[in-house]
Amino acid sequence: MDNFTLGRYLPLDSPIHRMDPRAKIGAMLIALVAIFFPSGWLGYAVMFAVIACVIMIAKLSWGFIWKAMRPMLFMLLFLLIINILVVKTGDVWLQIGSFQVYSDAVTQTLYIAVRLLLMIMITTCLTATTKPLDMTLGIEDLLKPFQRIGVPAHEIAMLISIALRFIPDLIDETERIMKAQESRGVDMKEGKLSERIMAILSLIVPLFVSAFQRAEDLANAMEARGYAPGEPRTRYKVLKMEGRDDILLLGAVCLLACMIWLAYFR
What we know:
Elements (H helix, E strand, L loop, with lengths): L20 H15 L4 H18 L4 H8 L3 H14 L5 E5 L2 E4 H27 L2 H12 L9 H31 L9 H32 L18 H22 L2
Antiparallel strand pairs: 1-2
């Protein structure tokens, strides 16, 4: 559980940390769109190089990024097994008796894995360099144009911010409950399947109770401070775009243009 890094903010001093959250969110969305263009391995290499430069500028450690990627490895292994069993096109790379592994199965899995890992790198960089409050303000400003059609921009931004903020807390709570259950003789790693299912249930029930208690405490605290959804609100902190934010957005657009060129015009 200590390896879970999604949603954790690292209070470092870097140019990326000082950028406007709207610029970072916009650059992230543009980069995520660029990932899904079929630009080939060259395009993915360019994407990785650009994201790696951003990570180094943000002063994030590669160990921190790897911790965010590691939970996805099991899913990628499962996806590889499914593709090997289902995909039957391309050249035969491996044959064991009547069982054959085709090149397209491995290639498709690698494409998905690279895209997923690049997405995790981008989102981890965003959450690690942006304070939850700044994230809320940025999302709210980006959603403001949709208020004309009835979209509650502030409420949506608040929900996203709270969700990101409490992910690490829920992980810590899960670890605390697991240690408490293990101290009472519950073994979640060994035993029969039925015993392991019961052990997981003994973890899920108190976790849900704790989550609901946290939600109730948060609601009471917000209500005590006069928070009222839908009412006009003032801000202590006003976001302002600067030249470095424009450079970040321009760089993201150039990256998207490069991926489009590699995909369709190379």
